[in-house]
Amino acid sequence: MSLLSVRDLGLSLPDRSVRSHRGAPRRLQILRGVSFDLDLGESLGIVGESGSGKTSLGRALLRLYEPTSGSLHFEAEDITHWSQARLRPLRERIQMVFQDSLSSLNPRHRVEDLIAQPLLAFGRASSRQAARAQAVHLLERVGLEARFARRYPHELSGGQRQRVGIARAIALKPRLVVADEVVSGLDVSTQAQILLLLRELKAQDSLIFISHDLSVVRVLCDRVLVMRAGEVVESGSCQQVFDRPAHLYTRELLESVPLPDYDPDWVGKTPAEALPG
Ligand SMILES: Nc1ncnc2c1ncn2[C@@H]1O[C@H](COP(=O)(O)OP(=O)(O)OP(=O)(O)O)[C@@H](O)[C@H]1O
Ligand SMILES: [Mg+2]
Fold first, then answer.
1. Exposed, middle or buried by CB within 10 Å (0-12, 13-18, 19+), for 161?
2. Cα separation of 5 and 36, whole Å?
3. Which ligand sits closest to the CA of 65?
4. What would the pLDDT profile of 66-115 be if each residue is shown by its tens digit?
5. Is the Cβ atom of 13 under 6 angstroms away from ligand 1?
6. Which residue among 41, 51, 78, 153 is buried most deeply as judged by most CB within 10 Å?
7. By C-alpha distance, which of 99, 259, 275, 268 is closest to 199?
8. Measured from the CA of 227, which atom of ligand 1 is nearest?
């Protein structure tokens, strides 16, 4: 059974760049005719140049945006036009780790409370104290020591913040995690550690991994969707798409990205062993 089924999805958003004087603002078509399925336990990479619509698609899948056309099914239910109130219980089962961890984590809360919040909100912990104790376990799972629980987001490095974002996302044991550019901007060894973590998670959950780094998608994902200007230009197994790209755009994308030679068998190795040089 498909966990997620996307059919002919279209999204338009009000144009932020033009201030309309009267009437509704002009709308920009952001996504067009996007279709794919995701099975339980599967990982799908979404790649494409900047502005191709990857983040917008991720947000639409979480129903942070309401699709303008097409349909979106999660666990066989048509959630395309569900109200926010109706979506709320679903928020336990789909989580997103955002592109910008500094702005997506409330700066006024300590790490332990950032992670404790969803646990309390969804009744997974009986008290604040119990939720904070769980938060410490989750921090350990993402490779952060207990002392980080008392810190604020701005007191962490980018890699540490991404780990907190991941700990928060997995706290509720979701069926699907959407991770948006979670390793960009990090140094190579931190990247590798976070990727190992995602790889581990993937064993239990489904993962949508948004990235413009094709080499990372190749080692982490089963299948890949290539986007350009809001449309899917190509999709298939990673092996098929990367070894024999059918579309010129995919070939250009492959050529434009410097491919650090990740060892394809790096799973199970330490980051130092898995990385080149
Ligand atoms: N809230 C919004 N309102 C209007 N236009 C938007 C909005 N969000 C994104 N866009 C536009 O939609 C297009 C796709 O943006 P999106 O952020 O999804 O791209 P992306 O593939 O994630 O890019 P990047 O790799 O730089 O993160 C862009 O042209 C962007 O300007
Ligand atoms: Mg983006």
1. buried
2. 6
3. 1
4. 999 999 999 999 999 999 999 999 999 999 998 777 788 999 999 999 99
5. yes
6. 153
7. 268
8. 21
Nearest CA to ligand 1 atom 14: 53
Q: Quote the CA–CA distance of 232 and 48 in Å, as a whole number.
A: 9
Of the listed ligands, the closest to the CA of 47 is 1
What's the pTM? 0.88
Closest atom of ligand 1 to 30 CA is 12
The tens digit of pLDDT for each residue in 217-275 reads 988 899 999 999 999 999 999 999 999 999 999 999 888 765 555 554 544 444 455 44
- 8 A C-beta contact, residue 45 and residue 238: yes
Which two tokens mark 256? 């434009």
Q: What 3 state SS string does 235-268 have?
A: EEEHHHHHHCCCCHHHHHHHHHCCCCCCCCCCCC
Token pair listed for 197: 């973590």
Residue nearest to atom 16 of ligand 1 (CA): 53
The closest residue, in CA terms, to atom 24 on ligand 1 is 50
Q: Which two tokens stand for residue 94?
A: 């789909």
